[in-house]
Each structure stands twice: as structure tokens, then as C-alpha cells.
Specification:
The chain has 6 helices and 18 strands. The protein is an alpha+beta fold and 327 residues long. Strands 1, 2, 3, 4, 5, 6, 7, 8, 9, 10, 11, 12 and 13 form a 13-stranded mixed beta sheet that branches. It has a 3-stranded mixed beta sheet with strand order 15-18-17. It has a two-stranded antiparallel sheet with strand order 14-16.
Length: 327
């Protein structure tokens, strides 16, 4: 112990010290081995002196001793309480940190809450474009319904589609993006692809522009590379993967272009009904034997029908209640 500190102890005993000096001495007595040993030596010394000369003990009166011991006991209890609190904190702090982290994650992903879903329907004659909270961009074709959570989950991003959509998925290797449609699933990490999956159609087609996707059905599945198209027949369960020369043609609809390549008239009619919100009346069933290859910007329906009449001997008559198809 330094000389200065001894002087402070003497001042405390003589009741000439400040409150702060007294607190410092009590803290030193109760908080260190050296202080406790010094205090013990002082008590032994005073006891020895009082045994030899009762008057000597008056330099450290019983009242002073009681006060000093009371302060020491209080500080020892306080230190013991602090140690107990430190032990409790060692247990609770990680739990609190985990809880805080969980609340933060929950605010971002709704991990611990019931998930709230939003459903968007694009009617016939219209199209739409939306962005999800992760940055994924989606183009929606006419007569398309999409269901998605307000916030994606912690482990995966999932949406449900009935119709046709083009996805530019924001890459996130820790949270795959999944599109579910009629017992099929397209799983991606970050890529661009077109999914045609109308409920009334017998087939589902997935065309990959960039990246890599896994297309799964109830019976089989396949991993696609850029430029490939998977076609799934919902009736037979057959899955066929083909290589396309111009895969981006499958999604020209999002650029306001109509594209048909050797498409049967029945398929062309379905596209036009959705695009222009009109009904076709088939007066001559033999017209369905013809197919169409055509690329044209969305003009009026009348203009499109005129172009189609140049390709095959099928007549289209535009009426107030729809379009008559005949030969």
C-alpha cells in the first residue's frame, strides 16, 4: 500500500476524511486481499493495545469500529450481489441477444408470425409488372393469378402461379426461390425464366433464359440450362426437355409482342382470348387443323386477325359479341 493511501486511512480513522475518501478506504478494505489483511492487522493491533492499556483503544472507539464494520459488511454484501448478477447476466445475456436477433429476423421475415398472403389477378386484356421485397421482378401476362407472402420466409421464397409470368429472380444462395403451379415446382437461386402454366391448359412450359433451375413434378423432374425448355403434360405425366434456338421468343409477350411458332389454331385462340378479352365462336371445326407462325406487335385485334388470314384459309369475323371462325 502506498504512503498516500496510509495517510488517507489515518484520516478516515481520525474522522478528518471526506466522504469520497472514506468510501475509497471501505472499498479497498472489502474489495482486495491486501486491504482485508491490513484491516485484520489493524484490528489485531488495536485489540492487543486495548488489552495492555484500555485507554489506548479510545483512538479507535467502539462506535467507530461498529460503523466501520457495518460499512465493510454492507460493501461485502454489495460485492456478493454484483457477483451474483454477473453470473445471472452470463446466462441471460446470450438469451437476450438471441431473442433480440430473433425479433429482428422476425421483423424482416415474419419467422415467428402467421404469414399473410397477397393475391393478385391480372384480368384478360391486361398485363402487369410487380417487384417483390427481395428485388425479384415479375411480369404477369393476361388472365394470370399469383399468390405470394407479404414477407418471404427465412429459408425460402415461395410464390404460387396460375397463368403465365416471366421472372427475374434476385440471387440469394441461402434462400431459394420457388414457384409452385398445379403440382409442379420451379426452384431457382437467381435467374430469368418464363413459366406458362394456365390451369385450363394440358401442358406447363418452363423456358430458361439465364442461370439454372430445377423443374419438379409429381412423377419426375429435370435441371435446365440456359436455352432449354421443359414441357410437362399434365394428362400423361410426360416431361420433355428441348433446346431452343431463340428461347427469349417465349417471353416476347412482356414486350407487347405476339409470338406464335407452328402453334395450332386452338392455342392461338386461347392466347388471343386472354390478350383481347374476347370470345371466339368456332363455326367450322376443320379450321383447327391449321397452325400459325407469326410475330407481331400488339395492335388492334382486327389487325391481328387480318394478318392471320394471310397465313391460312381461315376466316375471322369480328362481331360485337365475339369472333366467328369459319372457312
Amino acid at each position: 500500500m502506498l504512503r498516500k493511501e496510509r495517510d488517507i486511512v489515518k484520516k478516515v480513522i481520525a474522522e478528518n476524511a471526506s466522504k469520497q475518501e472514506a468510501r475509497d478506504v471501505v472499498e479497498w478494505f472489502s474489495g482486495s486481499i491486501e486491504g482485508q489483511q491490513t484491516l485484520s492487522d489493524m484490528i489485531d493491533r488495536d485489540a492487543y493495545l486495548m488489552e495492555g492499556d484500555p485507554l489506548t483503544g479510545q483512538s479507535f472507539t467502539p462506535l467507530q469500529s461498529d460503523l466501520l464494520f457495518s460499512n465493510i459488511e454492507r460493501n461485502i454484501r454489495l460485492r456478493h450481489f454484483r457477483k451474483q448478477m454477473l453470473r445471472v447476466a452470463a446466462v441471460l445475456l446470450p438469451l437476450l441477444l438471441f431473442t433480440g436477433f430473433g425479433l429482428y429476423i422476425n421483423s424482416r421475415t415474419s419467422l415467428f408470425e402467421g404469414i399473410t398472403y397477397t393475391e393478385l389477378y391480372v384480368p384478360k386484356g391486361e398485363d402487369a409488372r410487380i417487384f417483390f421485397q427481395d428485388g425479384t421482378e415479375v411480369f404477369l401476362n393476361a388472365d394470370t393469378r399469383i399468390r405470394y407472402p407479404e414477407r418471404f420466409g427465412l429459408l425460402r421464397r415461395e410464390v404460387w402461379l396460375d397463368g403465365e409470368a416471366y421472372f427475374n429472380v434476385k440471387k440469394n444462395s441461402r434462400r431459394p426461390f420457388e414457384v409452385h403451379s398445379q403440382n409442379t415446382t420451379v426452384e431457382v437461386l437467381g435467374t430469368s425464366f418464363n413459366l406458362n402454366a394456365y390451369r385450363e391448359s394440358d401442358k406447363i412450359r418452363v423456358t430458361l433464359d439465364e442461370g439454372s433451375i430445377a423443374f419438379r413434378t409429381q412423377h419426375n423432374g429435370s435441371t435446365l440450362s440456359p436455352g432449354q425448355q421443359a414441357e410437362y403434360d399434365k394428362i400423361t405425366g410426360k416431361l420433355v426437355v428441348t433446346n431452343l434456338i431463340h428461347p427469349s421468343n417465349q417471353s416476347l409477350w412482356k414486350n407487347n409482342l405476339l409470338y406464335f411458332y407452328d402453334s395450332p389454331l386452338s392455342e392461338v385462340i386461347n392466347v388471343l382470348e386472354r390478350r383481347y378479352n374476347v370470345e371466339f365462336n368456332l363455326l367450322t371445326p376443320e379450321a383447327l387443323n391449321y397452325s400459325y407462325t407469326l410475330t407481331t406487335r400488339h395492335l388492334s385485334l382486327d389487325s391481328v386477325l387480318i394478318e392471320m388470314q394471310k397465313i391460312a384459309p381461315v376466316r375471322f369475323t369480328l362481331r360485337e359479341n365475339g369472333v366467328d371462325v369459319s372457312m
